[in-house]
Amino acid sequence: MPHISATAALQISVLFALPAQYFISQWYRTNSAKHIQVTERITASWNISTRSYLSPDVWADPLKLWISKTRICLYVELLILHFRNWYYGENKTKSGHNEAKPHSYFAESTHVQSPKPEYIKFRVGQVIIHRRFGYSGVIVGWDVKANTPEEQLQPRYSPVELDLKDTPHYRILINKANGSGKSTAYVPEEEIKVIMGLEVYHPDMETYFTGYDGSKYIMQPGLKKLYPHD
């Protein structure tokens, strides 16, 4: 809706008020014979006024000025809108990129593992020994099957062992007492077995566990939330 300036408002007021005032004052001061003459003069005055104030030529320049201002305002608003969309969209993308967690491999997912499949044989907190390599450690996570980058699957398993990638895998904190030089391992289920009464020494033990009860390690609350059925 166009903005009406004070000058335009005054013109419109005069346009309607003066003929009306003149008509009222003249009408009641005359007899019926004069009424016609007064009416004709008022009509003529109205026609002149309408030709003056209601002529497109009179309003053309103010209208053009208003349209030009409106276009400028719309253009500015569009620029602001595009800038806001770009700024917040880019920052949202950057923020999302910064906050997005990388794909979690090697049983390090932050998703709650529930329900637990029945074929998952071992539990978080159990102490194990590797059947082939002999090192001991404690389970800190598991996957229903090998969860590793695709390029590592082939080198990890020989053609004979390739079926192992579809079996449960466990993340192990390796017992420092073994002196193997490795701190963690990611192994298929068939390569480990559970033992009792053996404590594990590892610098990250307190991150995962609160203590040892003689048969297994007790999970920290955060880890227990991830593995509620272990």
UniProtKB/TrEMBL annotation:
Listed Pfam families: YccV-like (PF08755)
Example of a GO MF term: DNA binding
All copies of domain Hemimethylated DNA-binding, residue ranges: 119-220
Keywords: Signal
Signal sequence region: 1-17
UniProt cross-references to NCBIfam families, sorted A to Z: yccV
Protein name: FBX21 protein
Organism field: Erythrocercus mccallii
